Amino acid sequence: MVVQGSADARVGVQLEPFLHQVGGHMSVMKYDEHTVCKPLVSREQRFYESLPLAMKRFTPQYKGTITVHLWKDSQGHLSLVANPLKENQEPFKVSTESAAVAIWQALQQTTSGSGSARILTQLACPAKESPAKVVLRPESHLSAQVSSRLEDAGGNQAEKKSFNPWGLHCHQAHLTRLRTEFPEDRRHRFLLLENVVSPYTHPCILDLKMGTRQHGDDASEEKKARHMKKCAQSTSARLGVRICGMQVYQTDKKHFLCRDKYYGRKLSVDGFRQALYQFLHNGTHLRAELLEPILRQLQALLAVIRSQSSYRFYSSSLLIIYDGQEPSERTSGSLRPQEAAQVAHSSSPGGLAKVDIRMIDFAHTTYKGSWNEHTTYDGPDPGYIFGLENLIGILQDIQEGQ
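That's the Kinase sequence above. Prediction below.
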């Protein structure tokens, strides 16, 4: 949808909520099919602009910055609008039938009057499907679980989870803050980044908070104590890694199984191992062919992190991504098991199934030579390395158990 900004005459691009955000607290928005954007943090921008070459394959491509403002349409729907990168560039047009836009607008309609904790959203489905109603139940803080029911022509209901609600909650919190703390004509800067899940039909995503320390050097004493407590009470202390969010496509039920950061904080070491296994399980079988490419990429990342002196990736996350739609489903549904295995091992260079390992969230990353740093460190990040080593060891145990 192309909109006209109220404060100026420039054409803008209506941003969509990003429905594959599984973790974090900062709202991520969809700019176009291959680009997402998020509120700009100067430290994170500087990190991307000075990124070591060896790390570029493990981070989203940085595409610059953009100006964003809050906008309200004639029906009172709030959204964020970005000015195009270039004045003469044809802006990306968001369809009014977009599922993300329909969900967000319906969410606003149901909460504008009552402010009820139960938020009913309307999911935009293909014409051949019945509409699905999704109920988001906020729990403590911004935690949410989604429970949806799909009604067929006869009124029968079947449970179905069609998208991960976490991004909508982050988006809602962000818009609420903008609306209450800033004037409507205020301009905000956003980072433009590669949408790393765009190549996937059903992106399965594991968001892992890495390291044994999560607070930045600039954290207040109160915030420092809060983060240290979270680490001490979770697998961050014992493993150097904890689950911050997850979605895994269940082929038997045709929906995503979703987990949020509150689930991840409660896991024991054994629970963390079981959750990793669950992330690789599609509801019918373990995707064992994914383990080798995941391990190869993690080991390559480990070598890169070990070579980066002075970097500390406090509070950053690591994404593991693969497609919930198996290669055999994309080619032929009648392949024999041996043929399906051959297809699975030929879907990316080197004969391995396609997976992605990406580092994200660098708002608290510090390194020698970065601007205005009062604290610098020697050698590679020990907490991040500790977490990677344990993650690799657990995945190797799963691999050997097959």
